[in-house]
Request: fold
Amino acid sequence: MKTGAYRVARAAGCLKATFAVAVGMNLIEAVWDPGGIALRVARAAASAAFTLTLAAYVVLRVLGWRRARSERP
Reply:
């Protein structure tokens, strides 16, 4: 199904983007320790976004796998 593949590809793109943000924030913290409430909130938001996109990607992949498996003769 074309729509399902599009959703999985879109979820994969979002997962890559949130992963890049999380890695970038860790690199910034490794080089320069800014601290403060703003960084704490940003890290929590990045963690939540990454967790949600990872869950969405896994769910879409599992649903696609189950759909493809049920369509086999």
Summary: The CA atoms of residues 51 and 64 lie 20 Å apart. The mean pLDDT is 84. The longest helix spans residues 37-71.
